[in-house]
Design a protein that fits this description.
The structure holds three protein chains of three kinds.
Chain A (H helix, E strand, L loop, with lengths): L1 H10 L43 E13 L7 E12 L19 E13 L9 E12 L15 E7 L4 E6 L4 E11 L2 E12 L6
Antiparallel strand pairs in A: 1-2, 1-8, 2-3, 3-4, 4-5, 5-6, 6-7, 7-8
Chain B lengths: L36 H12 L5 H12 L7 E4 L16 E8 L4 E15 L3 E15 L2 E17 L2 E13 L13 E12 L4 E10 L10 E9 L14 E7 L5 E6 L15 E6 L2 E8 L29
Antiparallel strand pairs in B: 1-2, 2-3, 3-4, 4-5, 5-6, 6-7, 7-8, 8-9, 9-10, 10-11, 11-12, 12-13
Chain C lengths: L15 E3 L2 H13 L5 H9 L4 H9 L2 H15 L19 H21 L6 H4 L3 E3 L1 H7 L1 E2 L6 E5 L12 H6 L9 H12 L12 H9 L2 H7 L1 H14 L14 H5 L18 E2 L2 E2 L3 H10 L1 H16 L8 H13 L4 H10 L5 E4 L2 H6 L8 H12 L4 E2 L2 E2 L7 H4 L17 H22 L23 H15 L9 H16 L2 H13 L2 H4 L2
Antiparallel strand pairs in C: 1-7, 2-4, 3-4, 5-6, 8-9
Helix pairs in contact in C: 1-2, 1-3, 3-17, 4-5, 4-15, 9-12, 10-11, 11-12, 15-16, 15-17, 16-17, 19-21, 21-24, 22-23, 23-24
The chains are: A mainly beta, B mainly beta, C mainly alpha.
């Protein structure tokens, strides 16, 4: 009943008498002015935390045969074989057999003939050095990724450091000698092997 | 008698007339009276001639030399197939990682480099860096390289030429006395610098923003387009006291001062004199004073390229078979 | 003697029929605050229309008016496009992309808010020696910033500060690369600040001139072709100011894509090779440009147009010059005080008119306006307490495409709002009404409710038509929702009673019946159109 009286009273309400004064304001909604709490991740994040997705395995094995017998050496002939595998290590072999054409991961297989003559420029710790011409005699070097692999016909200078038992390379022929291959000397022969592993981004057709 | 009609006023006229006024105000010019523009230009020249890839390269070499197994990861070629600057068959080497070595050295980002070195009649070398690499040690930044830079040289019998192209930011690796701020700098420029026993010359253009440092405590940026002929190798028509071209210097309020050099007018009929002095333009307005440079000793600051600085191989000879 | 009597016939005032008192206040409140007036206020204005002036001042002082300022400026700036431009993770932020986009898009708009809130001249939009940021934006753009909310801030990368002209958000929204040589940006400045869109100029080309652009050196062709020069003579010098922002943003990281490069300021030489200038006046840098823009009469004109169009929901035409001149005078005389400008607009007879007998004015007048998505959202929320949201985002946020559906803009592909009734708008109103009605009913008819009812103040679960309380409630709903009381003889109470009964008959649920009735009231055209 009381509610009905109130309702009737409400319905009977007419506009207030004008007095030139605005009715008081109701509480105003205040805008939320922007983010007040910001969560910052202060840890480094370059997206590069992971290991390489793909690996390139490089292998080289070679032999120098120097002449004349017993030295002082004036000539050298030899051979280097180089392999590169993508995401696979080279299978262990008893000898440096030629890989099967469909060996998994094999992307590069080359054989180079080496012919060299004695160089007048020697590394400081070297007993002798040769200017050696590389000739590609088997395989295709185009897919090979080793940045140090020469082109067929290039002449590179190497010297033998007996003390450290390394073959040193004169980079660019500019007199900058760097250890290149650890090697074993047997008489007039030098045998060497080398391997490395790098991350790699495969080309589209690999 | 005629009663004159009264004209009716139209609607209220708009008060401000857009066509009234005295024209544009004159461009307010900054006060450079407290700065020695000649000294500033000389300073800028001596920075330009030393703008090369040495500091960044040294930083890269250090970062590679400090590596440990797996930190950072090494790559043959590009470390990321999505980098616009590098193809998947890029011939160089790179590192790419976010890691810290046991010695407390932290690597973040990637750095790619290529080198070439050949010696026949003369020696030619080239090095190229593409990087976004931060290296720090125990929280202190050792190097920050971001961008791309390439430098090639040719030297023969005491004469050399160096071509530099940079578009990068370098921090942390600039040594004292290198002519550029130790806090680092950002440069986009190409230069050809010739030196040695036959000729001294510099040609180049670009700009440099200096981190932290100010030239003459005022200018934070340099832009330039210069052709400088040194005493050595100068022809009878060459002016060796003054560059051809211009240098711009910017103060932190974005006010540029340009010094325009014109040692020989040729057929232009413009006033020119080989006196080492150039016309000063402030905010593009020609001033009635000049700024002068002294090229003595400039080319002594340019260092002859050394072949050893163009080799960075990760070759580990391994162990004997 | 000829007595000539010439009556001074003033230009006849257009015969405008004013909106009713309540309607005027509703229009004013919705335009300035995005909500209806309270019933108390409506009763007061009904009794005394002279109070309108005072309500104008009251509503201009309401903080919600500043939201409207931001909305109106966004129709020019178009920065609320929902983009972050970069992965917020690069700034170390662990915040949703949508929140970052809000902050990014609001950088210039918050400057406008700051200007109006602090009674600064509108020219501060280009003269401000600072930018505006909140902590999120400060992290993204690496700004010097203090405090927890939006505040003035400064860039650290050596850039000069010139209001919106030097904001990273501005130049990410209006990028440029290659042979465009900042011309896109120059036109953005011209369109936004001077209301002069180069692309709207009636320039026609011969086919051979267009072909020459692709076969020859574009810059040389532009320089040599008079038709091209009709725009480029002023466009290129304007474009020359922005090379410090010459970013290669494609695949660029956050640093690379936002860092100001002072050393690149003069790269204009490598592009159009036109020295920086502003319509024939040489300038030396971007702060010079800002000063010239601020003094250009078109800047003030454009501000007037912007707010006029934002408040009247129509494009200005040449025929509006007389009315606009009045507002322009008020704006200029107040030293470009936006509230004074808005006051002038909302006090004008045209703004308060329902119709006119002047056929020419009738072509231009908008007698009935339509709630935009922001206003629909805020009006309904204010009435019902209900906010329709999707993952915390309302319908005015275009993440779900609803803003555009409701006639709003997305600031990128849809840049002009639609004020005409549409199926989309009505569909949204229908769904919003339905959800809001259920919200109100669920609250008001909850037997355990302790706080005041939102709308259903006179009924309970037991109320049935034809109780007196039922009709009273219906009439109260119409007042609360539309602001307009029903006429004594109105049919709505009876129709709603019938509807209520029909729905109740289906499942016997009074809640559902009241929700249905309330949703119908919330779909009344007087809510959507004002």
């Amino acid at each position: 009943m009381a509610r009905s009286v109130v309702i009737v009273g409400l319905l009977a309400c007419s506009g207030q008498e004008p007095d030139g004064v605005l009715p008081t304001e109701e509480g105003l909604r205040v805008e939320d002015t922007g983010s007040s709490s910001v969560i910052l991740d202060t840890g480094p994040d370059t997206g590069l935390n992971g290991d390489p997705e793909h690996f390139l395995f490089l292998y080289q094995t070679g032999l120098w045969e120097m002449s004349p017998f017993g030295g002082p050496y004036t000539h050298v002939v030899g051979e280097i074989e180089a392999w590169e595998y993508l995401d696979e290590e080279r299978p262990r072999r008893d000898s440096a057999d030629t890989a099967e054409p469909d060996e998994p991961g094999l992307i590069c297989e080359t054989t180079w003939a080496l012919v060299g003559t004695a160089s007048e420029e020697l590394c400081p710790a070297c007993e002798f050095a040769f200017d050696i011409e590389y000739t590609l005699v088997a395989g295709d070097d185009e897919p090979c990724r080793d940045p140090d692999l020469p082109a067929s016909g290039d002449v590179l200078r190497f010297g033998w450091n007996e003390t450290d038992r390394v073959i040193e390379h004169d980079v660019g022929g500019a007199g900058l000698w760097m250890p290149w291959w650890a090697a074993t000397r047997a008489g007039d022969d030098l045998a060497f092997e080398w391997s490395a592993r790098f991350g790699v981004v495969p080309e589209e057709d690999e | 008698m005629i009663l004159l009609l009264l004209a009716c006023a139209g609607p209220e006229a708009v008060e401000d007339d857009p066509f009234a006024g005295e024209g544009p105000d004159a461009l307010p010019l900054p006060d450079f009276s407290d700065v020695d523009l000649s000294a500033a230009a000389n300073d800028a020249l001596r920075r330009i001639v030393r703008l090369d890839t040495a500091a960044g390269w040294a930083g890269l070499v250090d970062s590679v030399g400090s590596r440990t197994e797996g930190c950072p990861d090494l790559y043959a070629g590009t470390p990321d197939g999505d980098l616009d600057e590098l193809d998947e068959d890029s011939p160089g080497l790179s590192w790419s990682d976010t890691c810290t070595t046991s010695a407390g050295r932290s690597y973040g980002g990637y750095a790619y480099w290529e080198t070439e070195l050949h010696h026949t009649a003369g020696t030619e070398g080239r090095r190229r860096i593409v990087a976004q690499a931060a290296v720090s040690h125990e929280g202190e930044l050792e190097s920050w390289l971001k961008g791309e830079a390439e430098e090639a040289f040719l030297s023969s019998e005491g004469h050399w030429r160096r071509n530099v192209t940079v578009d990068w930011t370098v921090e942390g690796v600039v040594p004292e006395g290198a002519g550029l701020p130790t806090e680092g700098y950002r440069a986009a420029a190409q230069l050809e610098l010739t030196g040695g026993v036959l000729e001294e010359a510099l040609t180049g253009s670009g700009n440099v923003f200096l981190h932290g440092e100010r030239i003459e405590e005022r200018f934070d940026s340099i832009e330039f387009d210069l052709d400088i002929q040194g005493e050595l190798g100068a022809g009878p028509e060459d002016c060796t006291a003054e560059p051809v071209g211009w240098i711009g210097l910017r103060d932190p309020d974005a006010h540029w001062a340009h010094i325009v050099f014109l040692p020989t007018a040729g057929d232009t009929g413009v006033d020119a004199a080989c006196d080492g002095c150039g016309t000063v333009f402030v905010r593009g307005v020609e001033q009635d004073f000049e700024a002068c440079v002294d090229l003595d000793g400039l080319f002594e600051l340019a260092s002859e390229p050394a072949a050893k600085d163009y080799v960075l191989s990760l070759r580990d000879p391994g162990s004997a078979p | 003697m000829i007595l000539l009597l010439l009556s001074c016939a003033t230009d006849a005032e257009p015969a405008l029929v004013a909106l009713g008192n309540r309607e005027q206040l509703i229009r004013l409140s919705v335009d300035l605050r995005g909500v209806h007036p309270s019933e108390e206020e409506l009763l007061a204005i009904e009794a005394d229309l002279d109070l309108y002036d005072q309500y104008v001042d009251r509503y201009l002082a309401d903080p919600r008016f500043l939201d409207r300022v931001e909305e109106i400026l966004n129709t020019r700036m178009l920065t609320r496009d929902g983009r972050t431009y970069f992965d917020p993770g690069q700034a170390g932020l662990v915040v949703s992309d949508a929140d970052v986009a809000d902050s990014v898009g609001d950088e210039p708009l918050k400057l406008a808010r700051h200007i109006v809130d602090n009674d600064l001249p509108w020219s501060e939009l280009v003269l401000a020696d600072y930018t505006m940021a909140d902590p999120v934006l400060a992290a993204m753009w690496d700004l010097e910033h203090e405090g927890e909310g939006w505040a003035t801030a400064r860039y650290r990368d050596g850039r000069p500060h010139a209001g919106v002209l030097t904001m990273t958000t501005t130049w990410l929204r209006y990028p440029s690369a290659g042979v465009n040589a900042n011309r896109h940006r120059a036109n953005a400045v011209s369109r936004i600040l001077l209301c002069d869109d180069y692309l709207a100029r009636p320039v026609s080309f011969e086919r051979s001139q267009i072909d020459a652009i692709t076969t020859g050196d574009p810059e040389q062709v532009i320089a040599d072709t008079p038709t091209c020069q009709s725009c480029h003579s002023s466009l290129d010098p304007l474009a020359a100011h922005f090379f410090g922002f010459w970013w290669d943003t494609e695949d660029a990281g956050l640093d690379e894509g936002t860092l100001y490069r002072p050393e690149d300021e003069n790269l204009w030489r490598d592009h159009a090779d036109r020295e920086p200038g502003f319509y024939g006046h040489p300038t030396a840098d971007i702060q010079d440009l800002a000063g010239m823009i601020a003094e250009d009469p078109r800047f003030a004109d454009c501000a007037v147009e912007t707010f006029f169009e934002g408040l009247t929901q129509r494009r200005t035409t040449d025929a509006d010059w007389e009315e606009l001149a009045l507002h322009r005078n008020a704006f200029s005389e107040s030293n470009q005080h936006v509230k004074t400008l808005v006051r002038s607009i909302v006090l004008s007879p045209e703004y308060r008119a329902r119709s006119t007998s002047d056929p020419e004015l009738a072509e231009r007048l908008v007698p009935v306006k339509t709630l935009g998505p922001h206003q629909l959202e805020s009006v309904v929320e204010d009435i019902t307490g209900y906010r329709w949201s999707f993952d915390g985002r309302g319908i005015s946020d275009n993440a779900e495409g609803l803003a555009v559906l409701a006639g709003g803009i997305d600031s990128r592909d849809v840049v002009e709002g639609s004020h005409d009734p549409s199926v989309g708008l009505l569909s949204i109103q229908e769904r919003l009404a339905w959800s809001a009605a259920h919200h109100v009913v669920g609250h008001d008819l909850d037997p355990a409710r302790t706080e005041d009812a939102i709308l259903l103040r006179y009924v309970t679960h037991e109320t049935r038509p034809p109780d007196e309380a039922f009709e009273a409630q219906i009439r109260s709903l119409y007042v609360d929702v539309t602001g307009l009381p029903l006429a004594e003889e109105a049919r709505e109470p009876a129709l709603m009673a019938q509807l209520w009964t029909e729905v109740h008959t289906v499942n016997g649920d009074p809640d559902e019946a009241w929700a249905t009735v309330l949703s119908v009231v919330l779909r009344d055209p007087h809510l959507l159109f004002y």
